[in-house]
Write a structure and sequence with these properties.
Chain lengths: 333, 333
């Protein structure tokens, strides 16, 4: 075979907010799969906030993207050739080599998906890493208990909207969400959030005090900055913060000062824990069981924003960082 | 009886750093003990950083000191009259009504001490609340494991110097302390700290990187501010912070910005937990057993700075806030 396919390379490292110039669409030859490998044509790929961090050449616990090479990330592909008995042409698989038309995959890290259980895109959404992130953050990291009052920031985002709904399903007494537009606030209320506010309206501290006048027990943090500071003020005794993301800081070129009220952690005996999904994969089986049921019963609803075409993946990613998506941002190839 | 005695009142609430004008020495009549009560003459009292917080009229989980009334805090007294069978004149007792010559006490919250087990002052030091604070912070809050590298700030202070020594006794691979003078740094090395630095010499981040080039697993925080920021940078994967105090912020009149690198909590999956002693009193029996043994065997050493006279208690407290003490700051009456 002498196939060619397109892929998106990191052309240069962004300083502050990325621009389209940081990306480069390249046509490359597609290698044949070796023994134990398979070749897929991607049909759907994910863009996620964590990808911004990997564009920096900073020492971290996940390696940075290499300049002049294809980016990667969650994707779903259809098998076109297989040199392993585990997969056959036509199978749909979930894997980690997005940002390209064709991908050669190893068996390991490639999972067949069943489109009769849920729509294909759900495997990059509520049944995928973002769903498990929301679930693990609430249950493992923040030790959510029935009756807790919960605040979720960036709650109209992919992880946040699931976190709020899972909190309700797990018995939270009150779930409050913040978002960046009035339309998103309305959607949160439709999803069953007890209260929601537009963080651009007034200081977050004031909005949160109005939305949760008796305080909160758990804060699911996707934002950092003023949201974290407001949450520390609102948290009650023995409150817990699951720190999932700090999108407010990802594009900052100067270090962003932390919350000015961290001393409250002492008088209120608060716990703040940062987490990454891969420490919590042990929950996956339990999670898939619960989430499949919730989806089947219509108890979890989710939104997708789908952009068409690999060539538009960079602008989909930029839109994600600007908050233009509602729910999971996907690119259909 | 028509005894009179002196006590120290809060004359006005400090704004920023307290001054002697905020205190007032008053002569008052001493009431007789009622049924079930006892009257003690205090021989020793404690001044502690947490008292600064109680001088503010701020909503908190411990009530503020009242204006025009005696302050309180840990003290040791000799029983002079008893209306309960549990105590006899001549007994030495530990209790919570310091800052006065005579105190009328209830049985509850009053504990007889045994001066043959350890010197009387040790009951306001390593065998008292500060010892248990260090012990609970390391073991309960930071989940110290043998082999961990530990950083303690304000390490020449009463809690800090015990925390460092307990960490070594519990198997820490390396214990680093910070202090505010070269003399204190020398004392830390005498106490068995593996490394110590004067935080006034250069940025804390640099000093800590030199003292713990391979990073730390546990940070026992007494300071907050630049110390916490430096510790977040030095912490390794799954590191833990026990937040015991933030003395850097107690006298600030403007909110102090938090650490600029809190996003590290995500990539390194860090846990930060504030704590107060009274959530950990369940450890007291185990603690007293271990600490008595360590003191008897000379494996824990401690310093005291003793000021003479109740009338000098306010200046002892101010000196404590300025870091003039070495080890526990006490006032002998």
């Amino acid at each position: 075979m002498s196939r060619t396919g397109h892929e998106v390379h990191l052309a240069s490292r962004p300083h502050g907010w990325p621009t389209l110039e940081n990306f480069h669409l390249v046509k490359v030859p597609v290698p044949d799969p070796g023994p134990g490998q398979l070749l897929v044509r991607n049909v759907l790929m994910s863009v996620d906030p964590y990808m911004r961090g990997r564009m920096n050449d900073a020492k971290s616990y996940t390696p940075p993207y290499a300049l002049g090479e294809a980016l990667d990330g969650g994707a779903i592909g259809e098998v076109v050739a297989s040199e392993t008995d585990a997969f056959r042409p036509g199978d749909l698989v979930q894997h980690g080599k997005g940002w390209r038309e064709y991908a050669v995959l190893d068996e390991r890290g490639t999972h067949r998906i069943d489109p009769t259980v849920a729509p294909v895109s759900a495997y990059l959404g509520p049944l995928g890493g973002i769903g498990l992130t929301a679930y693990a953050g609430l249950l493992d990291v923040a030790a959510l208990q029935p009756g807790d009052a919960v605040f979720v920031s960036a709650a109209a985002g992919a992880v946040g909207s699931l976190a709020g709904q899972i909190a309700k399903l797990k018995g939270a007494s009150r779930v409050v969400g913040s978002a960046g537009s009035d339309e998103k606030v309305r959607r949160l209320l439709e999803l069953g959030f007890d209260a929601a506010f537009n963080y651009r309206d007034q200081p977050v501290r004031r909005s949160l005090a109005e939305a949760a006048p008796e305080g909160i027990d758990v804060y699911f943090d996707n934002v950092g900055g003023d949201h974290l500071e407001a949450a520390l003020s609102a948290l009650r005794l023995h409150g817990r913060v699951a720190i999932c993301g700090m999108i407010a800081q990802y594009n900052a070129t100067e270090p962003v000062p932390g919350p000015r009220n961290l001393a409250l952690t002492i008088s209120k005996r608060l716990t703040l824990r940062g987490f990454l999904l891969h420490d919590h994969l042990g929950l996956r089986e339990q999670f898939v069981g619960e989430m499949s049921g919730w989806l089947r019963d219509g108890r979890i609803r989710y939104h997708e924003t789908v952009v068409e075409g690999l060539e538009n993946a960079p602008s989909a990613f930029l839109g994600l960082l600007r908050g233009e998506n509602l729910g999971k941002m996907l690119v259909r190839l």
